[in-house]
User: Which sequence fits this backbone?
């Protein structure tokens, strides 16, 4: 187990170094230098330009600059936003809970709907329900979620007036930020109606962001269940007289869950990608919307830092999933 | 004993040729055939756009802005799917949009498959440090959220349809590299490659004449599924204002223009997205069917 852990951990280091290289050099491709970019259309005189280049260390050799950059990154310093002059890490940490809350709710929604749908489809293979689930799931997988979000707004917010169009909570509520998760914070606050407001703001973005993972999880659960249901031990369990429900729920489901868990772990990247679009549509104040705004303002330190931070988070989650998988399934651990 | 029963073996049909066999498996999958039909329809629409479109895609008409579709009150059959905020015919823009979306899908796949095969062959044949370097880089690209990486690339290169295609091609590249490399490694261990090598075949001959044709199947499947990813990602970039720029009638860009009218005019929002969904779905159905038909492991 220790050896497996160490091998897996040793793979993280080159990936991390590669990400910093990518984040560092991508920004260097920008035409002109950062000082000119910051100065914008007003321009800047040559002497001041020189002084600023020197101040930011941009006149030093590129490898030295990279060395300084990675030293700062390791100290948790990702530079300052060119617009707000706030440290990138601080801005990220302020907005990240909103994205996490949305992503967690979306994946929960995908699991609660996707796993039972996939199971029932597998048990009733080739039934109308099976074909329905597979058809809907392929549609969900092919869905342009930015359009799906607009459609849901059109139906539920405009036509029916059930849900608000954008934001996280109605403007009159200010729950004390304890956890950063508005669902919990609004429950903790005494304001009547604030929790309901948070829920009604969350529901559409949650469905939109959960759609792709839901499709993938339903398909994966179905195929994993089908594989397990064909195994000899399932026939044995049925033959010794266990009820069908018991066999499916206890014997088959538990074994079908292993590949499903892996797929869930792999959804983190999908969720962040989706969050960028979902947050833009619903004006959800999270890191996705922040990054899009950074592009429009040409705020390169924010882009660079955001790319690196999200990349590292996905990397860490993938690592945790791998380790968890190794714990559940010893064959992975001992395989070379 | 009758003569008829003796004669039967002689009348047995010859085994179907590879193409015929492929079609037998492929056509058994109704979804895949439906996908193929839609793809052909979209291709024809794109090719015949000037004939099919009732209006020029960029023709504006200030008196006819936000006109509803023909079947709604206030609509007219001159503009079957209504007009957008500056009076352009939505149907015509959708028809011309098919050109852009297919172009994007096919160009992205062509670019990423060419570079991906080259890198994958190189990694699989070179092994050692070259292989590690290439595969690590691909792992990094795969680890970063795909759209985020594409967004950053476009933000740096500048918005536009060419840069958006380039960004999406970079993001989907690792899939082709991985497939090619895995296939190369499993194929080079086989006897026919050893035989070719002992016959004095050079490394390029081994790569392109011997190994590559034998890893074509998974690459073809990935390519057909890749078109759908490319169309979807490019539309997402267009929607975020980073892809094709207005007044281009790219479907994602049309949606971006339509966003502010979502409360007033449902049709400007509904139809472009529907086209994206149907096209992407068709390529996914087609790709699934290809995989089932080409994968010998699934054949019964």
Assistant:
């Amino acid at each position: 187990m220790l050896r497996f852990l160490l091998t897996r951990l040793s793979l993280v280091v080159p990936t991390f170094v590669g990400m910093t290289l990518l984040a560092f050099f991508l920004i260097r491709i920008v035409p002109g230098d950062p000082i000119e970019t910051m100065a914008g259309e007003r321009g800047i005189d040559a002497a001041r330009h020189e002084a600023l280049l020197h101040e930011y260390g941009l006149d030093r050799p590129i490898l030295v600059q990279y060395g300084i950059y990675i030293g700062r990154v390791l100290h948790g310093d990702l530079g300052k936003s060119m617009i707000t002059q706030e440290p990138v890490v601080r801005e990220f940490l302020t907005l990240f809970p909103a994205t996490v809350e949305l992503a967690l709710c979306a994946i929960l929604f995908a699991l609660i709907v996707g796993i039972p749908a996939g199971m029932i489809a597998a048990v009733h293979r080739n039934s109308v329900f099976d074909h329905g689930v597979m058809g809907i799931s392929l549609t969900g997988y092919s869905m342009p979620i930015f359009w799906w979000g607009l459609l849901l707004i059109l139906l539920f917010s405009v036509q029916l007036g059930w849900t608000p169009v954008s934001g996280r909570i109605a403007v009159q509520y200010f729950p004390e930020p304890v956890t950063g998760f508005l669902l919990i914070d609004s429950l903790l606050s005494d304001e009547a109606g604030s929790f309901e407001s948070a829920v009604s703001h969350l529901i559409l973005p949650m469905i939109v962001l959960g759609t792709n993972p839901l499709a993938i999880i339903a398909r994966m659960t179905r195929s994993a269940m089908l594989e397990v249901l064909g195994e000899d031990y399932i026939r044995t369990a049925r033959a010794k007289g266990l009820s069908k429900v018991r066999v499916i729920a206890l014997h088959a489901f538990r074994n079908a869950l292993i590949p499903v868990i892996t797929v869930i772990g792999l959804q983190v990247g999908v969720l962040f990608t989706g969050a960028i679009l979902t947050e833009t549509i619903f004006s959800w104040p999270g890191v996705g919307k922040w990054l899009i705004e950074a592009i429009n303002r040409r705020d390169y330190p924010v882009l660079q830092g955001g790319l690196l931070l999200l990349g590292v988070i996905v990397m860490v989650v993938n690592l945790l999933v791998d380790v968890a998988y190794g714990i559940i399934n010893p064959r992975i651990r001992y395989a070379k | 004993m009758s003569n008829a029963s003796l004669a039967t073996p002689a009348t047995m049909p010859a085994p179907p040729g590879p193409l015929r066999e492929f079609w037998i498996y492929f056509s058994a999958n109704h979804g895949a055939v439906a996908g193929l039909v839609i793809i052909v329809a979209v291709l024809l629409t794109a090719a015949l756009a000037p004939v099919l479109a009732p209006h020029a895609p960029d023709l504006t008409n200030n008196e006819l802005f936000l006109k509803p579709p023909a079947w709604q009150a206030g609509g007219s059959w001159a503009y079957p799917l209504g007009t957008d905020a500056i009076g352009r015919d939505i149907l015509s823009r959708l028809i011309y949009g098919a050109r852009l979306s297919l172009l994007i899908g096919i160009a992205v796949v062509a670019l990423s498959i060419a570079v991906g095969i080259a890198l994958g062959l190189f990694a699989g044949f070179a092994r050692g440090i070259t292989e590690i370097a290439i595969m690590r880089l691909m792992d990094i690209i795969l680890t970063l959220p795909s759209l985020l990486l594409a967004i950053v690339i476009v933000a740096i290169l500048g918005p536009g349809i060419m840069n958006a295609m380039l960004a999406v091609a970079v993001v989907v590249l690792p899939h082709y590299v991985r497939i090619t490399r895995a296939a190369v490694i499993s194929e080079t261990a086989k006897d026919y490659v050893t035989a070719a090598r002992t016959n004095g075949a050079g490394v390029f001959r081994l790569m392109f004449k011997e190994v590559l044709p034998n890893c074509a199947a998974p690459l073809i499947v990935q390519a057909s599924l890749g078109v759908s990813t490319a169309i979807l990602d490019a539309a997402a970039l267009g929607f975020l204002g980073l892809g094709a720029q207005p007044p281009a009638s790219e479907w994602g860009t049309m949606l971006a223009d339509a966003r502010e009218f979502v409360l007033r005019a449902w049709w400007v929002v509904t139809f472009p997205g529907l086209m994206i969904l149907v096209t992407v779905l068709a390529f996914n159905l087609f790709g699934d069917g290809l995989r089932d038909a080409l994968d010998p492991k699934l054949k019964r």
In short: The interface with chain A takes residues 31, 136-137, 139-140, 143-149, 151-153, 155-157, 228, 232, 235-236, 239-242, 252, 255, 258-259, 262-263, 266, 269-270, 272-274, 276-277, 280-281, 284-285, 288 of chain B (CB under 8 Å).
